[in-house]
Amino acid sequence: MDHFVYRDGRLCAEDVSLIRIAEETGTPFYCYSQATIERHYRVFADAFADVDATVCYAVKANSNIAVIGVLARLGAGADVVSGGELKRALTAGIPASRIVFSGIGKTGEELAAALDAGILQINVESEPELELLGQVAADKGVSAPVAIRINPGIDALTHDKIATGKAENKFGIEWTRAHRVYCRAMTMPGIDIVGIAVHIGSQVTDLEPFREAYVRTRDLAALLRADGIAIRRLDLGGGLGIPYGDEPAPSPGEYAAVVKSAIGDLDCHLILEPGRVIAGNAGILVTSVLYVKEGATRRFVVVDAAMNDLMRPALYNAFHGIATVMETPAKTECKEVDVVGPICETGDTFATGRPLPPLKAGDLLAIRAAGAYGAVMSSVYNTRPLVPEVLVRGGDFALVRERLSVDDMLSREVIPNWLKT
Question: Catalytic residue numbers?
Answer without folding.
Answer: 344
